[in-house]
Records
---
Amino acid sequence: MRRSSNNELHDGRARGINGDESLELETGMGSQPAAALYIVLLVATIVAIDLLFFRNQFWERLTANIGIVLVFSAFYFRFLKRS
């Protein structure tokens, strides 16, 4: 079978860069909704903690928010990040 200029075999199958017949897209499109959901969960947690416990306490609220962000980021880098 010969290849045309647009990297397709003449039977219609696409070929990958290294010549194999499986063409995998590594765009990470599946991880974008997961990351958006993770950020929404982070914001909801911060707002809930602020309203429930630290309504009129600025410095305690700031410290708690920084702690929550650090915990969420540590969890993300430990369990959810795909390298």
---
Amino acid sequence: MQHLSLEDDEVYWKRGNEYREKGQYDKAILDYNKAIEINPKYVDAYKERGIAYGRKGQYDLAFKEMRIGNRLSSSQKRKKIVR
């Protein structure tokens, strides 16, 4: 069994998803923030944070997060093609 550290970005991302699914958007955003702090290129954390902001009605922040996630995703795809 693999031991997950509290410094594991995926732990925070998964818990953020659980909070978001329960409608606890502020808690979800805090966990997505931590995931991004650990891994600033975590595309899914930006996108999920954007969804949480959107559910809170904070559409400007939601759009910003989605744009960041899409930009990172495109950048990562370009790097894979170049290699």
---
Amino acid sequence: MTCSIAALDGIDDREAGLASGLSNTAFQIGAAIGTAIVSTVAVSRTENVLAADGAGNRLVALTEGFQSGFLACIVLAGVSLLVVLLLLARSESRASEDELERPPVSRVQVAEQ
């Protein structure tokens, strides 16, 4: 919910539906790609452990696969956090540049309008 609120912050009312649709679509695509990556890592690790151990315990191999999948989740979350921080820093620097470029509005100018 908070991501939707943040995504729609500052959007005109007439464009809110489009922004909401884009936000939800990006979330769904990201979730699908993330699930595919994590499951691929888990299955690959499980198969590698079974192939290396031969007649080894399947539960141990499955546990190894899940551990690798969870590690992939941590890595994806870390990369996502870095991307978010970089994008926020860039948007804040653009906002401060825009404020520096605008001439200050005096109270006299506001009263005249």
---
Amino acid sequence: MKQLLVTTKDAWQSLGIGRTRFFEILRAGDIQAVRLGRRTLVPVTELERFAAALPSRNGTRATHTHSSSKNLVATPYGASGTPGGR
């Protein structure tokens, strides 16, 4: 069975970026995450959508865009950029 949700650590590692940059992207709303108890998990489909929307070296984008992310699960991060808005 394919894994549907991954930890934030697995998410940033699979994207090949650092922790700080990943949480900047998360806070900006470009990747949506969910909370299960104390854990923040990222849908694999979100990572795939985000990666597909990145510009290629020649400046073109894949067929998916960031605007579609607004219809997905809301991120648990508040206006302050911390879990729960604290």
